[in-house]
Every structure is written in C-alpha cells, then in structure tokens.
Amino acid sequence: MAAESDAFVVEGTFALPYNYFAGRVGSTWLVALRDEQKIYGVRHPQTGKVFVPPRQVDEKDFTDLTGDWVEVGPEGRVTGFTVIRYREPYQPLPVPFGLALIQLDGADTSIVHVVRGEDLGQLSVGRRVRAVFARERKATILDIAHFAPV
Amino acid sequence: MPPKPLSEELIHREHMARFPQRWSTGPVMGKFLKALRDEKRIMANVCPRCGRSQVPPREVCAVCRVAATQFEEVGPAGTLRNFDVVYYASPDPVTGQSREVPYATAYVELDGAKGGATFWHELHETDMTKLRRGLRVRAVFEEDGKRTGAITDIKYFEIIEGEA
Amino acid sequence: MPRKTRPVAIVGVGQTRHSSHREDVNQPELIHEAVRRAIDDAGVSLDDIDAVVTGNMEMFEGTHQPDMWQVLGNGAWGKPCLRVSTGGTTGATVFGAADNLVASGLHDVVLAIGFEKQQEGHTTGGITAMADPLWARHLQTGALTGMAALEVIDEFGHERARRAAMRYRVIMDQHAAKNPNAHRRFNLSFDMIDDLMQKSPPLVGELRLIHMCSQSDGAGAMIFASAERAAAINRRPPVWVQDHVTVHREETLSLSGVPTYDAHGKLETTTQRRAAEILFARNGIARPSEEIDVFEMYDPSAWWGLSWIRDFLLLEGDEHLQMVERGDIAIEGRFPINPSGGVTATNPIGATALLRPLEAALQIRGDAGAHQVPRTVRKALASGFGGTLWTVLMLLSKEKPDA
Going by fewer Cβ within 10 Å, which terminus of chain B is more open, N or C? Predict the structure, then answer.
C-alpha cells in the first residue's frame, strides 16, 4: 500500500518561448504609436462605432472595419479602474498604479492601460486622463508609458 | 480622413513564458520514487482483478479501473521491446541547447512485470547497430548519495552482454 | 448501440490556405478567414448559427482561454460557445461535439472551428509539455518516434518497408500538389524514392525528415445542421454525419503499441483497429476497403500512415503494403487515401483533425476541384489522431441515414 506519507513535492519549471503576431491591423496601430505618437481607432461604416484598439471585423456582424481609421484621444475618461499595490514576479509594472479602462475621446470602446501620477486614492470613474508617450518606443502598448490625470 | 494604409511592417513580440511548478508525487508515485532513492528497487503495482503490472505505478488499473494497491518489485533487468535512436535532438526551448546525439531511449519489459507493460527510460549504448528488439538490458542506478527520488535515480539501461 | 435523436448534415465548410507565413493575422483574424468561407459556402448568416464549438491546443500559442479573444472573429458573440482541446484529435472532437449538439436537438445549427498558429509557439516543446513531469518529460521528443518504423521494418524487411513508406510519402505529396490549400508541396516523384531513402536526414530511427508531418498555421470551419434546417439552407448538397467513435487508451505507459493485454488476457489492439471494429460493426460495413469510397486519414508520419491502413481497413498480413505498392491509394486508385495530401503536407494541429472530415465532405459533394477523386463518393471515412494515442473515426455519407 502506498500511504499519504509517501507523497512529496517535486519542483520544476515550465518554460516555452512564444512569438506573438499583432497581424496587419494590430501592426498598423502599434506602428502609429511608435512613429506618429498617435492613437487610432477604426470606425464601423454603418453604425459609426469606433473600436480602440482596432480590429479587423465587427464581432457581431462581421463588417470589415479596416477602411476607416480615425485618430482618437490623446485624452479620455476613466470608465473603470482598480489600484494595484502588490508586487509579484508576474506583475511586471512598478507599484502602485491604477489599472484602468479608458475611453479615449472619439472612441466607443475602452482600452486597458495604466494611470500614474497623483494620489491614486483620488482616482474615480469619469476622471479625465491624458496619454503620456514613452521616449523610447518599440511598437508595443507601452509606447504609451501611462496615462496621467488631467 | 483619407484611408490609412495598413502597415507593411508586421509586428511580433517575443515572450518567454516561464513559471515555477510544484508537483505532488501523490502517495503512489512517491512510493515508487522513494524506492528508487532509498532501496534501488523498481516498484510496480499490480491489479487485483486482472493481475497486470503498472510501472511506474498508478493508483488505478488502467483497464479494470479498480484500485491497485499491491506493490511488487520488478527488474532490474528486462527485455527491450522497442527503442528509439534519436539523431535529431530538438533544442531545449529555454536554453537552446541540444542533447548530444545520437542517443537512445528504450521501452523495457522488466522481469516480473505482467501483462506486457513496458517502462520508458534512456538506453546507454555507443554502438547503435547493436540495438534490436528482444535484447536483454538492465537498469544502472546512480551512486549512493546522489539519488534524489527522481526517475533519473536510474541513470540509464544498458545491454547485458552475452545474453540473447 | 448509440442512436442519434435526429440526423445531422454538414451544410458548409471553409478553410484557410495553410501556411507558415501568416504573420499578417492574429488568432481571431486567422479563424475569421475560415469562418467567413464556411458561412459563405453554406449561404447562411451569423443569425442562423445557434452555437459554436471551437478547439485548439493553447500551449502552442500560449494564450489562456483563447476562446474569449477569438470571439472577435469567430462569430460566437452572444451565442453559446464550447471549447474543446484533446491534443491532435482536437478537430475531430470538435466535429463530434458539434454533431452531438445538433443530433441531441439542443441546437439546430452549430459552427465548428479548429485552428492553430504553430509559428507563434514551440511545437515540440508544446507537445513535450503533455508528458508526465515526474517520469517522461525528460525523454519526450515531441511527436518524433521511430518505433512505428521499426515495427514495420521488423515485420516486412528493411528494404520493402522503407520503400513502401517512401512511396506512400510521394503519393501524399502528389495529392498535395493538387490541393491549393495545402501547406507543403515538394514536387516529389517516384524516381526520387531511392535518393530520399538515403539522403533525407534521419530524425529518430528510420523516421526521416521527409516522412514527418508539417507544422502549419491554419483554420478550418464546418457548419452542422438538422435535416430540417439543412433543407431550408440548401445551398450545397448536404453531407450526412453517419457516425463517429472515439477510442483512447488511457496512457498505459506503452506508447509504441507494444502488445499489452486486457483484463481478460486478450491481446489489446491499437486504438485505430478498435475504432474501426466498432464503427464498421455498428454500421453494417463488412468490407471497408470495398464499401468506403475515400479515406482522409490523420497520418502524422508516412510510417504511421502506412501502418494504420491495415488497422483501419481491418486487413491482415501485407495487404496494406500491397495497396501502397500498387498505387491503390492514389486519387485515381481503387482506394484513395488523403486526396488532400494529408497531414504530412498540412498540419495546423488544432485544425488538422477537423480538416479530415472537411476534405471528406468536399469529396462527397464532388467539390474538391483538382484533388477530387474521380468517382461518386457515397461513403467517406475520416480519422483523427492525437492525445495519448486517441483515435476518432468518422463516417460521412452522401445519403441521409435512417434516423
């Protein structure tokens, strides 16, 4: 018979390399962050809904959205948030920061990003914030370093 | 606004997903690994209904689905039922390093194991032309003090010279 | 004997051109291509779809709960969506789940999706991660093994076995050349066999590079409907799902197919043969190699493809080698296998086992274009392989089965 006392714990590591593709639509958006320091969305030709970040089709009706790009922001309003205060190996950003849903001016969807800069205890839904671009940009979401309350 | 041309440049982002894991052996595998470490014995468990051995052992007989609680020693010698000679060693996804090739792995039907169950391990041999199904092989254990309760407490299997 | 509540038809299919150069799309976009083609093929709208079943092996793309993200392109917004993941058999399990959902009466029209973007991850590493970390992971080399080859060689002789496996490979490549969606086409011909046998780099044992399946980016989609909805949709001839069976051996630590014995001391068969025995018995098929018109087999390597012909068709002795040696398995042959080129040509793993019945459905419809077999296809067989040596075996029919 094997007994519970026979069990012990083995430590190991899981590690695999990945290489994610933004796709042509995603690349267009990221390249604009890097090279133009502008944030774009795509607009539905019939409903006028503006999606940020952009996607290739509207998920509800499969309409192609890639024909009409509009600049949005750089300011917007917080539509939801939480304040992160804990450190952890898999949470890569310096704490504390506000993790926020931000609806940029001109957009109908919110993006997830980081709010820094003031007493985060004062952060609220509706608060106006502005994108602060990073000095070194690499065509990633962190080409916007963070949003700052206006 | 004039149509924005889609980017010619296609963005990729490389990311190594790495996280620590802690596996419980459970009682059955724990007993098996401890027997390797402490006694240099290979333990199989036996189904009370069909009599099949399972090695490494598992709680439940895979065929009968009843608890297999009886343990029996098997090996350390056995018969080579099938094997692989690896010429292309896939690089370790993390380190990029490859094992030295060629190397061989073996499915060994250990002496005393019933029902044809085979045990998968490394086969140590420099002359790959010697390998054929049906050879007699035996387990070689890691030295005292170096065994840790891992499957590699058996270093490898080697051909028993002179036995057909 | 399992009985369906009602018959189920495939009313539309779509797939991407499978490739290793799809940096231009992300996951939802890749899937969208196949879904869009299936919807257009069926002539339906998103409103017609009641539910979605989707599958892939998320370890290959490293995206957790990918079904949530995929809603951006897969048509599942606002609909019940089921995600399935069974290793290499994923696409076939997706097929079975979609069929079961419609057969049960729970939904009338179900969209089934399989996809993979092998390029975004590490295929061998992803497969190796399925091995038990305590006793197998340090040995596993992804899906590479030479043991299937060794068994065929031991049984039929070094020269004959290797020549047959290479002949099989060439035939598959010739089929792929006729399939515009296939990933890899090498323009192989029979006079290259000697050369390939010597020069193709060995990977493991006698498994050589040329024998081994592809790693592809691609997606497939199929739309399943009840008979009533199929009659209303009616853009393409319906293809009926007659039956499917899944057989797996719990990982009995004997991956090579080395004989093991069941509880009654009876020699265990491969999952391929067991699935075939069950499926043909309950569908009254006594001589599969005569009663089936085409077989899209999931062949992860030319060696397995060659070996499993015997298991799937319930043959004995060297009949399967003879079939390959005579060219019976060619598109124009007596028993065509993989007119699409099969898995050695194209392998986006989460889609691969769905592409088999998808291609089989095209054959029944007479729609496969240049790789169409030149006969009326009444019954088509399709198989999936993966997981821990699972087999899914699917039977498609031109005629509607009796309920």
Answer: C
The DSSP result for B13-54, as a single string, is EEEEEEEEEEEE-HHHHHHHHHIIIII--EEEEE-TTT--EE
Report B:66-125 residues touching C (Cβ under 8 A). Answer: 81-90, 93, 105, 107, 109, 115-122
What single DSSP character describes residue B101?
A: S
Name every chain B residue with its beta carbon within 8 A of the beta carbon of C124: 90, 93
Contact criterion met (CB < 8 Å) for C120 and A16: no
> What is the rounded average pLDDT of the residues C134-148?
80
Task: For chain B, give every domain's residue range.
Answer: 26-159
Residues C227, C6: contact at Cβ < 8 Å? yes
Q: What are phi and psi of B118, to 5 degrees?
A: -115, 155
C223-244: per-residue pLDDT in tens?
999 999 999 999 999 999 999 9
* Mean pLDDT, residues A77-96 taken together: 90
Would you say C193 and C170 are in contact if contact means Cβ atoms under 8 Å apart?
Answer: yes
Query: Which sign does the torsion angle of CA A46, A54, C63, C359 carry?
Result: positive
To 10 degrees, what angle do helices C302-312 and C158-176 make?
100
pLDDT value at position C260? 60
* Chain B residues in contact with C258 (beta carbon < 8 A): 81-82, 107, 109, 116, 118
Q: Is C134 on the interface with B (CB under 8 A)?
A: yes
CB atoms inside a 10 Å sphere around CB A118: 12
Sheet holding C8-15, edge to edge: C81-84, C51-55, C109-117, C217-226, C8-15, C239-247, C390-397, C379-386, C294-296
Looking at the predicted structure, is the pLDDT value of residue A92 above 90? no
- For an interface test with A, the pick among B11, B70, B71 (most A C-beta atoms closer than 10 Å) comes out as B11
Tokens of A19: 């290489």
CA distance B154 to C92: 39
* Angstrom distance (rounded) from CA B87 to CA B81: 20
Between chains, do C22 and A18 touch, taking CB under 8 Å as contact? no
CB contact under 8 A, B11 and A16: no
Q: What is the pTM of this model?
A: 0.94
Peptide bond into C201 cis (omega under 30): no
The CA distance from B121 to B84, in Å, is 11
Domain residue ranges in chain A: 21-149
Distance CA C74, CA C120 (A): 19
Q: Count the helices and strands in chain B (H runs, E runs).
A: 1, 9
Domain C8-123+215-227, CATH class in plain words: alpha beta
| Token pair for B110 | 């250990």
How many Å apart are CA C53 and CA C72, to the nearest integer? Answer: 15
As given in the structure block, the two tokens for residue C162 are: 């290797």
C403 close to C4: Cβ distance less than 8 angstroms: yes
Contacts of C205 in chain B (CB under 8 A): 84-85
Measure CB to CB from residue A17 to each of B14, B21, B71 and give the nearest one: B14
- Parse chain C into domains and list their residue ranges: 8-123+215-227
Give CA A35 to chain center in angstroms: 18
Report DSSP letters for C119-185, one per residue: GGS-HHHHHHTTS-TTTTTTT--TT--SHHHHHHHHHH-HHHHHHHHHHHHHHHHHHHTT-TT-S--
Asked whether this complex has an ipTM greater than 0.95, the answer is no
The band of C253, judged by pLDDT with boundaries at 50, 70 and 90, is: very low
Are C336 and C140 in contact by the 8 Å Cβ rule? The answer is no
C292 φ, ψ to 5°? -100, 140
Residue-wise pLDDT for B54-85, tens only, equals 899 989 988 788 999 999 999 999 999 889 99
Q: How far is B93 from chain C (nearest CA, A)?
A: 6
Cα→Cα distances B23→A12, A90, A97, B20, Å: 8, 20, 34, 10
